[in-house]
């Protein structure tokens, strides 16, 4: 018995290290050579960590290098590794998230092939770890029939007449924000916090029929998970070690996820109770109402589970706040610098609305404001990476990729491509969009990825643009504003692109 046990132990000692070396060394190095044979190079794979240590080092260096000099060319600041490696290795290159190979693609033709694919060749990456706690299996990560079902519900809630019905609520939210500004006349005010509250209030009222106070703890928990994700994004864990050794962040994330689940269920149960008790004759026409109708659908193919309701609520609470808050913050920053465009936008708003609140018809005719918003999205797009995975062996352009690789598309790189946008691509020039998107991009739809592209274009696009137009219009009707002399330009990625130190402006009432 003892000799057999000794033999088993010996085999274990010999085999396990061999398997580890095969997975951590042989496979990555073989894949690296395969890519090099096709002309795709990149920073060399390092045992266990891939290229993550280099990424962390470069990002920390740029984060610490805050400067008073303002440049809109933020790609080298917030994604220095991609900027450096594109210059060194070309438009498409390979790098490593630990042992996970990731192909970065910046050629428009290849990007179009990836994002417009409907055969499932480039599915979304599977949500894991903290991302799973933040988004669950909601619309952003779902695939196949589940995605189609959830997308249909979302399209109904955020388009056409439903969106028009949200305008009064968005105006009420903006009025609440502007009422607080009265005490800052002639003083400096930090607007990022204000816009975060505004976007939170809007998504709470329009999508979930609740007040900001009801949704506040949900947004706080989502923000907390966002910080945890950003703090751990490049940390490498192997062999399920996270299941055995729990860090403080792991424990905090678990606790936050449970509290988030309970808080959303309170809102869901409240709506269900109103219908059951006869206080309401339907679940409503907002997003939560659409989800509950889907939950109670008698057709099993259309029905969604309680878990799917929770995941969709988390997804839209988060995306509804983050993208619009970022867009409004950067637009205000740009208009505070480029006061000539601020004045042009104000003239348009006053011509359309005078001192009256915006209306749906007028919002669609805000041409100058629309140009400004698109140029802001080009320079300061909230989503800085579009990630897909390769489900099975594929041919992409002249390349062949094996399964289980990740594909990363960096919009900031495309938005600064001088071959598309000209040598002044890093400058703020809203007039690029004066004749529409097609003219601005020279007929290349991949040149602008502010809301993604293809079947998975952001479903909340129209809601975000409407909210931004309403807020900007109402601000321009009341104030002129300039950038604080204390402003420090240091953009930072915390899931979306944020001004690291906020945006301070000086208000001058009209």
Description:
The protein has 510 residues and is α+β, with helices and mostly antiparallel strands. It is built from 21 helices and 11 strands. The protein has a 4-stranded mixed sheet with strand order 1-2-7-4, with helices on both faces. Strands 3-11-8 form a 3-stranded antiparallel sheet. A hairpin with a 2-residue loop joins strand 1 (92-97) and strand 2. The mean pLDDT is 86.
Task: Offer a concise description of the structure.
The chain has 510 residues and is an alpha+beta fold. It has 21 helices and 11 strands.
Describe the secondary-structure layout.
Elements: H1 2-37, H2 52-64, H3 75-78, H4 80-89, E1 92-97, E2 100-105, H5 108-115, H6 129-135, H7 144-157, H8 160-181, E3 188-190, H9 191-208, H10 212-232, H11 241-244, H12 248-276, H13 287-295, H14 306-337, H15 339-353, H16 360-363, H17 367-379, E4 386-389, E5 394-396, E6 399-401, E7 406-409, H18 411-414, H19 418-421, H20 437-440, H21 461-478, E8 479-483, E9 491-494, E10 496-499, E11 504-509
Count of β-strands? 11
Global Rg: 24 Å
pLDDT < 50 stretches: none
Number of helices: 21
Fraction of residues in helices? 55-70%
Overall geometric form:
globular
Average pLDDT over all residues: 86
Major beta sheet, specifics?
Answer: 4 strands, mixed
Oligomer: single chain
